[in-house]
Amino acid sequence: MAEIRSQSAAAMAVAASALKAQQGRMRIIAENIANANSTARTAGGDPYRRQVPVFRPARVEGAEGVAMARVEGDQKDFKTEYDPGNPAADAKGYVKLPNVDTLVEALDMKEAQRAYEANLNVIETARSMQSRTLDILKK
């Protein structure tokens, strides 16, 4: 019985680590969307840079889970728009806009939500299997 419990606990620990990682990913995506239209505070300055989560393998309860290692700035070029009246415009009248594509962010958010739901299903299935095993052993 200890082996069944440890395998089930390991499956739930792996899924829980993925839940935490996907939750962090969704937070970063929300920040990207919130800053998609922001500009620099100073003339010619850089606006918000899209953030990207970086994941790493993580040991959890004798199994391999996942954790967010760090958040990096996306090095893709900023978009520019001609708007000489904008306080953030450079000497030529161009304003740098964030390198955030809201369509990409929306798709990433949907993917993170689906991964989160899948890991919830893993936990629910592992709990159900534990319960069924206990029911069988009681008979």
UniProtKB/TrEMBL annotation:
Domain of life: Bacteria
Family statement: Belongs to the flagella basal body rod proteins family.
Subunit (UniProt): The basal body constitutes a major portion of the flagellar organelle and consists of four rings (L,P,S, and M) mounted on a central rod. The rod consists of about 26 subunits of FlgG in the distal portion, and FlgB, FlgC and FlgF are thought to build up the proximal portion of the rod with about 6 subunits each.
PROSITE patterns, alphabetized: FLAGELLA_BB_ROD (PS00588)
Main location: other
Domain Flagellar basal body rod protein N-terminal: 12-40
Organism lineage string: Bacteria, Pseudomonadati, Pseudomonadota, Alphaproteobacteria, Caulobacterales
A Gene Ontology BP annotation from the UniProt entry: bacterial-type flagellum-dependent swarming motility
Protein name: Flagellar basal-body rod protein FlgC
Record organism: Caulobacter sp. 602-2
Localisation per UniProt entry: Bacterial flagellum basal body
